[in-house]
């Protein structure tokens, strides 16, 4: 295990929701450390708590018990505004539904994280152009999302998530809406860029084929996080 401090650290994290008069525990006693340079896959059935875990790591939601630290900061101790700033500056998020803004061009969508963090400058435009080339869309900078295929939109989403060089990348079913060939290309891109950026990536998926790429494979089972053996 790396000697450097973890990018993400969860200690005895539980999350419960009230449903009428009952309380449903979605996560129970989760412990997790993620480090820079790791490409980690998280498996689990629908409803097993994978998305809840992502929401807790990103600070969208808070644990019922336990602590969540991201980039050395304990999320429960932060205000909602502080968590928003941390998420904006230190986390890249890739959604299954792409979530591109339809009124912005491809280039403008990728520049958005830089604008939100006050880092959009003539110098940063070079990084945006580099990312466009690396995702194979250098000639589509001025196109709008509705002119792109699903695979192209997901490639834009990957580039947008990495535009501000976040130390943590979270992806929720990033290939779930894509055909097998396109999904493989997007995964190639996601893994390659993550490793080149030395980011920490946690990829939530239903697809067991992703495990062959992972440094570690985790699974949500009955509200608990277990580690499985990654394929050689």
Describe the structure.
The model has no long low-confidence stretch (mean pLDDT 89). The chain has helices spanning 50-58, 80-90, 106-116, 122-134, 150-162, 180-197; strands spanning 8-19, 22-34, 39-43, 65-70, 73-74, 91-94, 168-172, 200-204, 216-221, 224-228. The protein is globular and about 55 Å long. It has a domain at 8-102 and 165-228: 3-Layer(aba) Sandwich (Rossmann fold). The strands form two sheets. The chain has a six-stranded mixed β-sheet with strand order 6-7-8-3-9-10, sandwiched between helices. A four-stranded antiparallel β-sheet has the order 2-1-4-5. It is built from six helices and ten strands. The longest helix is centred in the C-terminal third of the chain and has 18 residues, at 180-197. Helix 3 packs across helix 4. The protein is α/β, with parallel strands linked by helices and 232 residues long.
């Amino acid at each position: 295990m790396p000697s450097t401090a973890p990018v993400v650290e969860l200690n005895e994290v539980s999350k419960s929701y009230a449903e009428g008069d009952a309380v449903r525990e979605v996560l129970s006693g989760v412990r997790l450390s993620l480090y820079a340079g790791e490409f980690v896959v998280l498996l689990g059935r629908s409803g097993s708590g994978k998305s809840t875990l992502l929401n807790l790591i990103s600070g969208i939601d808070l644990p019922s018990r336990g602590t969540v630290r991201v980039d050395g900061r304990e999320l429960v101790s932060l205000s909602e505004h502080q968590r928003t700033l941390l998420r904006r500056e230190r986390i890249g998020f890739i959604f299954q539904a792409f979530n591109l803004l339809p009124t912005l061009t491809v280039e403008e969508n990728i520049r958005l994280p830089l604008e939100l963090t006050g880092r959009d400058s003539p110098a940063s435009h070079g990084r945006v152009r580099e990312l466009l080339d690396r995702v194979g869309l250098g000639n589509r900078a001025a196109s709008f999302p509705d002119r792109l295929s699903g695979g192209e939109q997901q490639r834009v989403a990957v580039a947008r998530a990495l535009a501000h060089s976040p130390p943590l990348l979270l992806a929720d079913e990033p290939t779930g809406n894509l055909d097998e060939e396109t999904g493989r290309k997007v995964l190639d891109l996601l893994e390659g860029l993550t490793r080149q950026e030395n980011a920490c990536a946690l990829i939530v998926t239903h697809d067991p084929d992703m495990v062959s790429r992972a440094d570690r494979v985790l699974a949500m089972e009955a509200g608990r996080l277990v580690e499985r053996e990654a394929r050689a």
